[in-house]
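Sample pair:
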Amino acid sequence: MTLKIRLRKQGRKNHPFFRVVVADSRFPRDGKYVECIGWYNPFESEQGKGLKLDEGRVVHWLERGVQLSENAEALVAREFPAVMKNHRDKQMAHRTKMTAKKREARRKKAAAK
């Protein structure tokens, strides 16, 4: 079960409103979800009034390995840049660690021959 933070479309025709939800990637866009962590209204005129996210829940789910969809990532980055910077730094540290591990394994394998 792969969980993702993504947008769930609501609202009426030609005037969408989105909920930011944590959902299983196998479920349809507007289907069942695990938790609603915020909302996004692209038609809200004032800056900052059209988006509301729960920072604590976003951090909670990112720490548990939930992936972000492209649009959800852009919204989280706009609302909480520090959270996204921390998340990207953790991803890069993990990649660096795994790369070093692979290099070490290759070096040991080459030395054994």
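The chain is about 45% helix and 25% strand.
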